[in-house]
Design brief:
Pfam families: TPR_16, TPR_19. By secondary structure, the protein is mainly α. The protein contains 24 helices and no strands.
């Protein structure tokens, strides 16, 4: 990227070099710079050879603006891309993403529906419709769409893994096995495909077949990152009674007898030290049993031994209860980094409370309001918002106005 930028600075850049530079900026995680570059190609200053090249630049500009969360600019660029036959369906799907970003969910759904009408093989459109149906609680509709995606001519690796997992979570074990088998048959050298199939077999009680799939997975390239999952599925296949006890104890750790759950989970951990999920729920049970020091020790050690998400979130609450506001804030911010792009309203509330305790009122209000969007009836979120409003009223008009101006200025700079 630096080399190309140097060359472009010394000579008159042409259409192809700028397009290449935009791609490099996207790959480097610089969507705002990529969007600016692709937008230049929509100007007559850099005429392309062929009209659909301009549509390609408009498509990439839309993708880049969406990645930078500049939704309206994305829609303007994508309206150009939609005029080109080859880009039309992809532009419609990407425009739906812009509409969703603007909170216009009804428009987004109509666009996804239009995309699959024009191209019944369009995976993104179907997957978004299925996900939205799940959000609405329309489970049967969502599962029907997911099953349709699994039967597309060339479903993606990511879609097949997601669909198999959804069927497993919903308890639709026969469809989970069917999807996982196709996944493994289409990609026999893919470790993830074989692990997904092993998971489906285990859930169906077909443990010998699960072990065979795990043996295939271990022969695949790049399997190291999946070692913890392989270890758990192998344990499940060899000791299904341990998995059943874990599921019961984990449920109790969340909602049942926390002391009893802690005792059972401690027994599992003593026999299977590498069972990181059991260690995590042991920490949850200890925290609910108000054995905070022991819980903190469990989660702190887990952060050292594994990359299991959720530990920072738990430590946020433990530190907050103990009045350690700076540590609570550090853990809350780390928890947010652990789950980029995910909306976790409880985490937003915890982060808002930690920011408030550290007198970062304006940031706290943003996260509390985001939490309220997802959990309008949550009592803790309501209390945090009430406290923030009290603090803002005491802070005075001038400082509050300054905060609003600062937010407006940051928005302006983002646009530029």
């Amino acid at each position: 990227g630096i080399a190309l930028e140097t060359v472009c600075g010394k000579i008159m850049p042409d259409w192809d070099s700028l397009f290449c530079y935009g791609i490099l900026m996207m790959n480097a995680g610089e969507p705002a710079r990529a969007a600016k570059t692709f937008s230049l190609l929509l100007d007559d200053k850099f005429p392309p050879e062929g009209e659909n090249k301009k549509a390609d630049a408009a498509m990439m500009a839309g993708i880049a603006f969406n990645a930078a969360e500049r939704w309206q600019e994305a829609q303007r660029a994508l309206s150009v891309a939609m005029k080109d036959e080859e880009n039309r369906v992809d532009a419609i799907v990407e425009s739906a993403k812009s509409s969703a970003g603007l909170g216009e969910w009804a428009v987004a759904e109509r666009l996804w529906q239009r995309a699959v009408e024009l191209d019944p093989q369009n995976e993104d459109g179907w997957m978004n419709l299925a996900t939205r149906a799940m959000d609405y609680g329309e489970i049967e509709k969502a599962l029907k769409i997911f099953k349709r995606v699994s039967k597309l001519e060339e479903p993606s690796r990511e879609a097949m893994a997601t669909i198999a997992d959804v069927f497993l979570q919903m308890g639709d074990l026969s469809d989970a096995v069917e999807v996982a088998k196709r996944f493994a048959e289409d990609l026999p050298g893919d470790g993830l495909a074989n692990i997904v199939l092993a998971t489906a077999y285990n859930k169906n009680g077909r443990h010998k077949l699960a072990l065979k799939s795990l043996e295939k997975a271990e022969l695949c390239h790049g399997i190291a990152e999946f070692e913890p999952i392989i270890a758990r599925q192998r344990r499940f296949a060899k000791h299904p009674e341990i998995e059943e006890l874990f599921k019961k104890s984990a449920a109790d750790a969340l909602d049942g007898d926390a002391a009893e759950a802690a005792l059972e989970l401690q027994g599992i951990v003593e026999k299977h030290e590498d069972f990181v999920e059991a260690r995590y729920f042991l920490g949850v049970a200890l925290r609910r049993d108000e054995r905070l020091s022991e819980a903190e020790q469990v989660f702190t050690q887990l952060l050292i031994d594994s990359d299991l998400p959720g530990c920072h979130k738990e430590l946020t609450g433990i530190c907050a209860v103990q009045g350690r506001s700076k540590e609570a804030l550090a853990h809350a911010e780390a928890a947010l980094e652990d789950m980029p792009g995910e909306d976790d309203p409880q985490l937003f509330t915890n982060l808002a409370a930690a920011l408030m305790e550290n007198d970062r009122i304006d940031e706290a209000l943003k996260y509390a309001q985001r939490a309220e969007m997802h959990m309008p009836d949550d009592e803790f979120t309501k209390r945090v918002l009430a406290l923030l409003k009290q603090k803002m009223s005491k802070r005075g008009l001038i400082k509050n106005l300054g905060a609003v101006m600062k937010e407006a200025w940051s928005w302006k700079r983002k646009k530029e």
